[in-house]
Amino acid sequence: MRIGVKDYDWHELFPVVKSNAGAITAIWAPVILVYFMDAQIWYSVYCSLFGGVYGILSRLGEIRTLGMMRTRFESFPSAFNKRLVPLQAKESENGIKRLLFHQSFHKDSQIKMNGEVNFVLVWNQIIYSFREEDLISNREMDLMKMPVSSELFSGRIRWPVFLLANQLSTALSIATDFVGKDAQLLRKIKKDKCGYLAVTECYESLKYIIDILVVGDMERRVVSCIFNEIEESIRRSTFLEDLKISALPRVHEKCIELLELLVEGIEDNYSIVVLVVQDIFEIVTSDLMLNGSRVVASLLAQQEMEATEFFSSQIEAPLFASKHCLNFPMQDTDSLMDKIKRFLFLLTIKDKALDVPKNLKARRRITFFATSLFMDMPSAPNVRNMLSFSILTPHYKEEVKFSSKELHSSKQGVSINFYMKKIYPDEWKNFSERIGMDISNDLVDESYEEEIRKWASFRGQTLSRTVRGMMYYREAIKLQAFLDLAWNDGILQGYDTMWSENERLAAQVEALADMKFTHVVSCQVFGSQKSSGDPQAQDILDLMISYPSLRVAYVEEREEGRSHKTYSSILVKAVNGLDQEVYRIKLPGSPNIGEGKPENQNHAIIFTRGEALQAIDMNQDNYMEEAFKMRNILQELLRHRGRRPPTIIGIREHIFTGSVSSLAWFMSYQETSFVTIGQRLLANPLRVRFHYGHPDLFDRIFHLTRGGISKASKTINLSEDVFAGICYIS
């Protein structure tokens, strides 16, 4: 059979296509599909998606920027009171407390302080810790802290200045250009609550400072009459009719000039202060008040009633010209100067709230703390009722603190000191401001050498950084104990003055902190370092002196005879500048039969105390604001979410070296994805999470009775972490 087609062409499905992209896709598509069918890959994707959704539902990362924090700041005290403040004590307990504590702290008319007071004190302590870590400058500290006064007990809070920044200038601009009635102007200013608060606080502060500054009898009458006239205009809603608002900017400028002189407090400037006060009086009575003659008329009427020649002569004399009519220089008390500085900031500050603090680390920490206030967490118990816990930190021969030689020696052409200054330029500037060091030239006074060593060590992966961070737990417990025990008048005296004003309360706070917290650093070779004169031994001793509650455990090797050696685990503390032995436990032999790090933990775990144990690596850190949540975390060990309570509580870890390089940044995010987001699925709903990461918190009693938290079998158990979780299910 013959076909009548001589030239046969294959039929083309896609005759228009001139490339082979479709063929390549068809060939490689099965390969890609098989690759993505790998269960591990799909599991990782699912973990990330589930962890992200779970975090959103748990309100994690709800406040990510300072702008969001600014809009939510008003709700922080109530959220703090709900999550981090214990429930109110019963009346019977209050009666017992009145018998136990000092009489000045207990009056029958007093009531327990509310959550606003707690929040203000804790917030200020967090800001002070930022300053001690040189994350913020003195100016930023003044802008971020909140004043403590008796107004807090009535529920009135004065917000940080950085929230009220530029609000007064904005309100002045609105009032100067406004045309209408008082009620309309008031509604316009009240649209921004921070602006309204700034205006009212500035007026009250001006009235308070003038009342203290002016002491002359005639001058006080004039000032009182002026304020009464202004307040009467506000009450009658005739403020815009009785006052010429365009004169307010001039009053604003003169008030700034007066406050700057008051802050300086130089006695030779008395005549200048008099002139400034007279200028303010002249502007107010002549330009601002349309009926300024009412003040003089009122005083003249009062003069006729008193009918004294002395008073008549006083009116004829220029106001504020008398030598003793002004209280200048004013008394240099902390509370008064803080009010004057705060008022000056409200008048002069032009920075936007988003610019304070400038340090990125401070921003991240403060926003994370703000977010955590809205998370679901167990209620906080009183410090007396919270679970006690210990921290165990293994240390071998890693850096304790950078020596002067290490700081200034150049490795690969760059010294550690030079590198730290370039990586943290703002923190170096804040550090020099804090200690009063001049950094305008490269020559640094040798008296600052020890402070520079600490500053650089706190920014490296050193033991001193870890110990400082862990000791924030103790500081947080002490402040929380103070808030639990002190009453209103004790709060107003201040947490820092407790040590001198009420020694009995201070002793109780110290005792509670000692009962609830212990930090043991297992420096395995500390004994041999002491005997050999290693400088690291002195650095470890300096840490114990700086932090008296720190304990160091080490293994002592002692020769008895020619061929016999005895080994002991020893716990020491610092007493009078020397290390003093607390406990000694004789070991059956050398403890170094397994892996080094697990064995280092195993020999020292016996020296820990309490119901919980947190294992911390010597290159980890902690923050003051996170330490306040520790008693909430410990309550998780008592919550039954299944057949039995948990014995390991997972705690997220932040990699602080992520800013060093792009690779470190990638690894820090990988750690966050695996340790934080991925572990959420394992914890809930699967409930099969074992253990990963040293910030995790253990039920100490449970794990001590099951072989400890570390397995140190030689070669087999290279990782001591995961086997703590295996102990839980075995």
TrEMBL record:
Keywords: Membrane, Transmembrane, Transmembrane helix
Domain Glycosyl transferase: 356-437, 446-727
Spans traversing the lipid bilayer: 21-37, 43-60
Domain Callose synthase helical: start-end pairs: 160-349
Pfam families named among the record's database cross-references: CALS1, Glucan_synthase
Single GO molecular function: 1,3-beta-D-glucan synthase activity
GO CC field: 1,3-beta-D-glucan synthase complex; plasma membrane
Listed GO biological process terms: (1->3)-beta-D-glucan biosynthetic process
UniProt cross-references to InterPro entries, sorted A to Z: CALS1_helical (IPR058851), Glyco_trans_48_dom (IPR003440)
Protein name, UniProt field: 1,3-beta-glucan synthase
Organism: Cuscuta epithymum
